[in-house]
Specification:
The complex is a heterodimer of chains A (262) and B (321). Chain A is an alpha/beta fold and 262 residues long. Chain A has six helices and 13 strands. Chain A has helices at residues 37-53, 68-77, 95-106, 128-136, 189-195, 244-258; strands spanning 2-6, 9-11, 33-35, 56-62, 81-85, 113-117, 140-150, 153-160, 163-170, 173-177, 200-203, 222-228, 237-238. In chain A, strand 8 (153-160) and strand 9 form a beta hairpin. Chain B has two domains: 5-176, HUPs (Rossmann fold), CATH 3.40.50.620; 200-320, TPP-binding domain (Rossmann fold). Helices cover 28% and strands 29% of the residues of chain B. In chain B, strand 16, helix 7 (270-276) and strand 17 form a beta-alpha-beta unit. The chains are: A alpha/beta (262), B alpha/beta (321). Chains A and B meet through helix 3, helix 4, strand 7, strand 8 and strand 9 of A and helix 4, strand 7, strand 9, strand 10 and strand 13 of B. Strand 12 (222-228) of chain A pairs antiparallel with strand 10 (142-148) of chain B.
């Protein structure tokens, strides 16, 4: 079983995000960068499948030089090799263009299965996994909490509103991760040492046969006009009272009579 | 030239989901603004009654894709069928819900059609014939106003945000044989929760618990039941194993927009605030007056949730009686 995991480097979810001077991007300097949390689940799941069935795990990422840290993290967790599409002309691409670049790279890597995070917790587009599968002409299943790899097919348990469905698809196929799939391992010290010696191919757009003029910020179909901070709330109104009952009565009165929320 | 608006509705087990009304209502508003026609698409098996129901929200036309093979959502069967409808109608705008199904469908359809997709949109403005979409990014820490080049443009709207506006109309109904093409996926099993639990992303009221519960959610569940709401949890409560992953609200969980969000024993980590800050009103109950949650709340109570919550539940019951 040859598995490719799609990974992305994103700002830590505990970080404050601020708007840059251009008004359409975020300040990148003071941010701690991490592997997208849903991609950690993807790496972990790939390693578990490999441990059970044999094969290889490759990690693939599109991003600037810094994104190599995330690929190295996946290698330290136990992935076998990395592919990094590092090309300044890819910068600012929207989800579809990123998916097209990833699909082109995947044509150079053998795979039976692709695992991706359900979304990047940066732009929250929920789009790349499905689009990569579309461009490769293979089925995909989203939001998987349990994956079984059977003979020639995958059997995926997916969370929907109010329940779970089990979807089967023939391999090669792609699935995206949902929390609950597994608990990702930490990279061990020997793992980190070993990762330094693992192969990491760096590719440019031209290497993948992609015309740089067809991707990047200038070719976005979804164009960010302006970023705004969410509207601020008015100062909190504290509700106090002598007893819990008095506090509760006042809270319910305010929510019912004044705010008309209940 | 591409014109008109398509609203893709969503049904589960033969019943329209609430987001369908939101999608058709918002589709009507956009179509009126563009002086264009609105076509609502219903997809499923044995769905005649759904077309009748969707008429109440004012589409000019309804396209029904009715086939036993479309009973349950499958990405490939639905994408193929809808891509065929889109090709023949050549719309300028496609609107759907950013539900589990809608997000998956919109993503695959956008790639199929090679068009721009605005995911999880919370507001649509129309000026001089140009649509500007607002959407949260970074789990709601930032809002982006975006526009889409090319046509059709696809927008998936966040459930529970767009208003539902009945405007009945004698819509024509076209039953169309779905062009499903090659379908490789199979829904092998479907296991629905036994309880009539309200889905977090659709709930009007959410009562959430965090580390301060110590794992005891009884008082939270009772208050949620009294208010007809859903129970949510912070990441730490889920990481402790106190609640299921599907209950988690936050940047790495569900992003919710209820009318009322009651945060109990939740300190207010940035990633949690990101997931609930678009709630219309927020109540924070916490014993620590310095907890960051109070800076994001509309109403605050400093106190022990195990004393306050049962009293609130009683007061709600008394108010409703």
């Amino acid at each position: 079983m040859d598995i490719v995991v799609l990974v992305k480097q994103v700002p830590d979810t505990e970080s404050l995000v601020q708007i840059a001077a251009d008004g359409v991007s975020i300040k990148k300097d003071d941010i701690k960068w991490i592997m997208n949390p849903y991609d950690e689940l993807a790496v972990e799941e790939a390693l578990r499948i490999k441990e059970a069935k044999g094969g290889t795990v490759a990690v693939l990422s599109v991003g600037p030089q810094k994104a190599q840290e995330t690929i190295r993290t996946a290698l330290a967790m136990g992935a076998d090799k990395g592919v990094h599409v590092n090309d300044p002309k890819a910068e600012g691409s929207d989800s579809l263009a990123v998916a097209r670049i990833l699909a082109a790279a995947l044509k150079t890597i053998p795979f039976n299965l692709i695992i991706a995070g359900q979304r990047g917790v940066d732009e929250d587009n929920y789009q790349v996994g499905a689009a990569v599968a579309e461009f490769l002409g293979i089925p995909h299943v989203s939001l998987v909490v349990k994956a079984e790899i059977l003979d020639g097919k995958m059997r995926c348990h997916c969370v929907i509103e109010g329940g779970t469905v089990v979807v089967e698809a023939p391999l090669p196929a792609l699935f995206t991760t949902q929390r609950g799939l597994n608990d990702p391992r930490y990279a061990s010290l020997p793992g980190i040492m070993k990762a330094k010696k693992k192969p990491l191919d760096v590719k440019t757009l031209v290497d993948l046969g992609i015309d740089p003029a067809t991707v990047g910020a200038a070719r976005r179909q979804v164009v960010v006009k302006v970023l705004r901070m969410p509207p601020q709330r008015k100062a909190v109104r504290m509700i106090a009272g002598e007893t819990p009952e008095a506090v509760a009565a006042e809270l319910v009165r305010v929510l019912h009579n004044e705010a008309k929320l209940i | 030239m591409a014109q008109g608006v398509i609203a893709i509705t969503e049904q589960r087990d033969g019943k329209l989901r609430k987001v369908s009304y939101e999608v058709v209502s918002e589709g009507r508003r956009i179509a009126d603004g563009l002086s264009a026609a609105l076509t609502a698409v219903v997809v499923g098996s044995g769905i005649d009654s759904l077309a009748a129901e969707i008429k109440k929200f004012g589409p000019d036309k309804i396209v029904a894709l009715d086939d036993p093979a479309l009973a349950d959502y499958r990405t490939d069967a639905y994408t193929n069928s809808l891509a065929d409808v889109v090709k023949s109608l050549d719309p300028a705008v496609i609107i759907t819900g950013a539900s589990v199904q809608g997000k998956d469908l919109a993503a695959r359809l956008a790639a199929r059609l090679n068009v721009g997709l605005v995911m999880d949109c919370t507001g649509i403005a129309l000026q001089n014939g140009v649509l500007t979409y607002s959407r949260p990014m970074f789990g709601g820490k930032i809002m982006a106003d975006v526009q889409v080049n090319g046509s059709p443009q696809i927008v998936a709207v966040r459930p529970n945000v767009m208003s539902i506006n009945p405007s009945p109309r004698e819509s024509s109904v076209e039953k169309r044989a779905p062009q499903m093409g090659e379908v490789k996926t199979v829904v092998a099993e479907k296991m629905m929760d036994a309880s009539s639990k309200i889905e977090l992303t659709e709930a009007d009221v959410i009562v959430s618990g965090g580390r301060g519960t110590g794992g005891n959610f009884k008082a939270i569940e009772e208050l949620a039941a009294a208010l007809g709401g859903a129970v949510g949890a912070s990441r730490s409560a889920v990481d402790e194993g106190w609640r299921k992953h599907s209950d988690q609200v936050g940047q790495t969980g569900k992003v919710v927009s209820p009318a009322l969000y009651i945060a109990c024993g939740i300190s207010g980590a940035i990633q949690h605030l990101a997931g609930m800050s678009s709630s219309k009103a927020i109540v924070a109950i916490n014993k620590d007056p310095e907890a960051p949650i109070f800076s994001k709340a509309d109403y605050g109570v400093v106190g022990d949730i195990f004393q306050i919550l049962p009293a609130v539940t009683e007061a709600v019951k008394k108010m409703k009686a």
